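Known limitations

Structure tokens in this collection are predictions and should be treated as such. Users comparing against experimental data should check residue numbering before alignment. To illustrate the layout, the record for Permease IIC component is reproduced below. The input appears on top and the generated tokens appear beneath it.
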Amino acid sequence: MGNNSFIDKFSAVAGRIGQQRHLGAVRDGFVSLMPLMIVGSLVTLINNLPIGRNTLLKEKLAEIPGLAWITTINGNVWWGTFGMISLFSVMAIAYYLAKSYEGNALSAALVSLAAYLSAVPQMAFITTEAGEEVAGWGFINYRYTNAQGLIVGVIIALIGTEIFVRLSRSDKLIIKMPDGVPPAVSRSFAALIPGVITIIAISFITVMIELVAKNNVFDLIYENLAKPLAKGSDTWGFGLIIVLLTHVFWVFGIHGANMFEGVLQTLNLMAVDNNTALLESGATEGFTYFSKSFLDAFVYMGGAGVCIGLVIALLVAGKSKQNRMVGRLGLLPSVFNINEPIIFGLPIVLNPIFAIPFVLAPILCFIVAYGASRMGILPAVSVVIPWTTPPILSGLFATNFKIIGPIIQVINLAISVLVYIPFVKIADRIEMKKEAQQAEAAE
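Generated tokens:
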């Protein structure tokens, strides 16, 4: 009774956290941007193929007109995707947050973007041909539009949308158009005054912060929050806590990955952006090793719990009809990192037999992969990898086509299979007794 009460309370609290509208808006916003992230990562991967840097081969390839254009086009595509990811994030997060309030989602997205741009520093110093440094207005440094601006983007999207939605509910601030006016026009005028107030309010706040702190809000937050957060998250402790909690939530029937999606996606984009810049500059240190793409490639193979290892264990060591059938049904989905057939078919949820290996296997895989990264054996991930990418391929993409990626994946798969096999045998004994009893009852 006591255990059931604890489980119910734990599930209720975790469920409320997972359904919190602001966390949900951040999560859904980043998920909606996944196609742009993948395209940006793909062109980055192509432009950094392992053909050597500053080598004769690369110089010869650069002389081929077609290949030179490919590099230019890929750079332009990166600029239009990853280079502008903060702008897209502001719009997407604001859209989903306003939608959760049943407000004007499109207007909220546009207003939040305008508020964000009003906060972006527009002064820059330009060096002339004569070597003179002059100040220029109307220049936006790309570090305010790429992943470095994400933290500010998330904050402005959430605050701006909250202000806009609340003002939009006031009849005194709504300009009502006569009947017969097209709905799109009516919605635009309805959003006019709330939008103006929101943009001015955000701009006022950022200017006041700049006057007090003697620094713009972007550089202030990046230096004092984003960088320490990124550095603090790239540790053994942070990684182990994320992996542990993700799988403990799953054991209780709560989508563990969704609980941390917003935070991990933000950190992931910052990590990928940092690693890409270092890779292109030829740097050998300063890389960020822990990221969501790192987890997807080297820990969550077959989905949470390294479920492809469980599937292999079921097919290799399983003897009961039930367990082998679940293994066969889960094989193809697990290749693409979809594990719901296993989690709910075996099941994993609230199953004391499989709860231990389901949590232990990914922890061991994290220790191996992260340790290999820290020792310089496994390169830092510099691309956003689609979570459905099958193992081996994801290892190749994650390491810029270095064979060590798939090797680490194979090692982790072997570890997961060895962890699961004893528990598969225990589950087999129980299941085979049930099958024998059912057979006797049927006779």
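For this record: DSSP finds 20 helices and two strands in the chain. The chain has three domains: 33-80, 97-232, 240-442. Please report discrepancies through the issue tracker.
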